[in-house]
Design a protein that fits this description.
The protein is mostly helical and 276 residues long. The protein has ten helices and no strands.
């Protein structure tokens, strides 16, 4: 659980840095799948710093996924939204209200319950159908991005964030399915991760950072958790299943409540922050 929380810290700060970098870049086409926007964002120092934190976070996430059930790792990653909300108060000039601080507490409380309830990693390796289904899900992320990019305002950020979360969720599941240097699970990991970054960059460039992150948290938490329990044998300590369900629900509900905080995160980064 410590590795999962460390990953959440990295991902939470990274989202804010990437939002500042994406907004400092030249505006993109508005599409949810905009490779040119991503290329311009990569020229920004803050975006690159966010990617560096993402790299560290992904390493910690891998450690967690190899030792814990997917649902426990996913709920730990929900803490990234709390980190994003707090970081946004410093870097994006946003303000947390009492209800948002309560939501931060709910996320942390839910994670504490999950940490107590989590059992070992399941022994299932997934069927061939699950591997191909994971690859198909990775491709569907691009379709979500194309549709979400047509939506206005906050809905756009939420849907693109959700699509990014689905892509990162594919990565979580694929890590458990990979059994060689080739195969659908490996391709799903690469396609899902790449598509997720495209969608997330587009969402952060124009919308609320915490609205986008809230959608991402839900996308990368719920689906992979169900796959882990139903197909990969993930479970809890004996007698702790109700606590795990309560902790998971509390963390996700806290993340959803924090989504409404995100309006303050939509400020535009100053051109002075540009890495060009």
């Amino acid at each position: 659980m410590v590795a999962g929380l460390g990953a959440a810290m990295c991902f939470g700060v990274a989202s804010v840095l990437q939002a500042r970098g994406a907004r400092a870049a030249e505006p993109g086409s508005g599409s949810g799948v905009d490779t040119r926007l991503l290329a311009r964002a990569l020229a920004q120092r803050e975006y690159l710093a966010g990617l560096g934190l993402d790299g560290i976070g992904f390493g910690l996430e891998l450690v967690a996924l190899l030792t814990l059930p997917i649902y426990a790792v996913g709920a730990a990653l929900a803490a990234s939204l709390a980190v994003t909300a707090v970081a946004a108060t410093r870097l994006l000039g946003a303000t947390l209200q009492r209800v948002e601080w309560a939501a931060v507490g709910a996320v942390c409380g839910g994670l504490a319950l999950l940490g107590l309830a989590a059992g070992g990693e399941g022994g299932g390796h997934g069927s061939s159908a699950l591997q191909w289904g994971t690859l198909a899900a990775a491709g569907a992320v691009l379709l979500v991005g194309a549709a979400g990019g047509r939506l206005p305002g906050r809905a756009r950020a939420a849907v693109l964030g959700l699509g990014a979360g689905l892509g990162f969720g594919v990565v979580e599941v694929a890590v458990r399915l990979i059994d060689g240097v080739t195969g659908p699970a490996l391709y799903a990991l690469l396609l899902g991760g790449g598509a997720a970054f495209l969608l997330l960059t587009s969402a952060l460039s124009q919308g609320s950072v915490t609205t986008a992150t809230a959608g991402m948290v839900i996308g990368e938490t719920v689906g992979p958790a169900l796959v882990g329990v139903l197909a990969l044998g993930d479970g809890t300590r004996a007698g702790w299943a109700p606590a795990a369900v309560a902790g998971f629900a509390l963390a996700v509900v806290g993340a959803l409540v924090l989504a409404r905080f995100g309006e303050g995160g939509a400020t535009t980064a100053s051109p002075a922050t540009s890495g060009r």
